[in-house]
Write a structure and sequence with these properties.
This protein is an alpha/beta fold. The protein has a 4-stranded mixed beta sheet with strand order 2-1-3-4, with helices on one face. Strand 3, helix 2 and strand 4 form a beta-alpha-beta unit. The longest helix has 19 residues.
């Protein structure tokens, strides 16, 4: 039997054999379309975060781990990040090296301010981002006793070709 091909501007030549069914069907055209038009497996569309957490110097190892765990768990739950996709850097700063207005944005910050910068693939909806901010803040309050006013989160969105996870290869390009 022959599988019907969708009508396209540039039809493929007829073949004697049916085209195999694939998990990720490609458009039937003579000339290949740009790679962004093809559906990709989920391992290529996840968020791929790199998290930088900035804290005041002098916090315990347990506190730092609680903060890092809370941020990662929120990313897994809200942003569809795989559990094993964890790349985090914790920076500790002396008191005078972090300058943040105490009430900008209508909050009341203390000396225990935490700045979280998350670099991730572009394309998340505003709703996902809002849920992520809320979940990170709630988990930090519950797990590390951080006041909601002391959490500043910044998302930096990049395109997928900006990642290399080793061997000098553009992992997703």
């Amino acid at each position: 039997t022959r599988y019907p091909l969708p009508a396209t501007r540039y039809p493929l030549p007829a073949t004697r054999y049916p085209l195999p069914a694939t998990r990720y069907p490609l458009p039937a055209t003579r000339y290949p379309l740009p790679a962004t038009r093809y559906p990709l497996p989920s391992r290529y569309t996840s968020v791929m975060p790199l998290v930088k957490i900035h804290l005041r110097r002098g916090k315990s190892d347990e506190y730092r781990r609680s903060v890092a765990d809370a941020v990662h768990e929120a990313l897994v739950k809200q942003a569809n990040v795989p559990v094993d996709d964890r790349f985090q850097i914790i920076f500790e700063h002396e008191g005078g090296s972090v300058i943040a207005h105490a009430s900008y944005g209508g909050v009341s910050r203390s000396e225990d301010l935490i700045l979280i910068e998350i670099t991730l693939n572009a394309g998340r909806s505003v709703e996902v981002k809002k849920n992520l901010y809320a979940d990170i803040t709630a988990r930090l309050g519950r797990d590390a006793d951080v006041r909601p006013d002391d959490v500043v989160i910044n998302l930096v969105e990049v395109t997928k070709e900006n990642w290399s996870f080793g061997s000098g290869k553009a992992t997703y390009a």
